[in-house]
């Protein structure tokens, strides 16, 4: 069996602090992004007194060249937005060489799976999964790739949603939507699981052990019952939506609970 | 009654796209950050081929000068980390004028409150709350302020936790922990509530209305029952932890549900 495809370690993506929590496999990096309703995208607009900017956005992974590729394979990250928003203006300016060419971004997806309560503040932690991607941005201009990305993004939120809506987007919608393709140059995931990790110096102290409760508070993204709009006519809630809510909610909860009994890497 | 304190609008923090969702009040901006288990912090290390970097971190608001200040008042954002991590190395280099002096960051906290399913992909959205802060970083070197921040951060995760643990941090822990104080230079929140916002062109189409379910799938951060560590001796789970889990879980769920019936600003 072939080993998992991984992102090469470089000075850019290497997990330095608590490196034993690092994971460079495409599958691990991509799964966290695929399971996150929003990702955070950072870029330098070059016009804001040197502040970088972060935006919460929907980001979905896919390959226009190889549309059947799964999360274990090389993929691009697609972002979409209103054509005249700050990030899209920056991307268009970068395509013309200003302020940098090409435009570079860092994208981060994070899921918090639990609060880790230990004996002393410094050893407190969280169970979490995060993926950090460093990438190069290109404007998607071909209508075929744009439609591919629109479908990818919509179905990335709820599988099967795109074809159940009024499609394709009309001319005005195609014009007002800008799609960005982020080529992933470097990426890594960092994952903490397991129970608290306390220092020997505290584990030896009877007074501390007898005073302080230690353990994990599981946390997970939960989903409520779908609530219809005031103008909805379709009843009952379609099965693909009900299944999505049920399955995703259960998966999230189960992950948070099973993460506790997995090995933990590193103190705190 | 005095009106709420607000961050001044500037070209840096102004919500351009769907500006009617923008909120500049200290209370709104601060509440989203205070209620987020992690924030995303972006900075420019100046050494990574021009990529910005994003890190998920714990970030808590407080005022060392005015410790009784609440979320409606001016506050600083405190971050903590291992002394030799990339962000701390960058902060120390910046204090010496390299790569920029002072170090500037963008910090974003985001909560997803629901998936907004409408008639056509372009009008799909999410109910969400996000705060974006642009700030200037200073290293905290005074032990009193460092201890203030450590307590703020620990109690910001679970109120009352700090004094229930082995404190104060010892010499090695004080040495290995670097605290950053972010002065908030510009900030704004962006909030979407309400039901889907569909275009007139789709609301007029019987075929579309009869085919596509529209509504909201509520989403919220949920908490499971606290799970004790293998070496825990304190039984039962202390009341302040049980209360935190119960109250925070209920608040999160209630927000997501009530957000649906609030007015919605802007299409999509």
From TrEMBL, chains A, B:
Pfam families: Pyridox_ox_2
Record InterPro entries: Pyridox_Oxase-rel (IPR024747), Split_barrel_FMN-bd (IPR012349)
SUPFAM superfamilies reported in the protein's UniProt record: FMN-binding split barrel
Highest taxon, organism lineage: Eukaryota
Record-given protein name: Flavin-nucleotide-binding protein
Source organism phylogeny: Eukaryota, Fungi, Dikarya, Ascomycota, Pezizomycotina
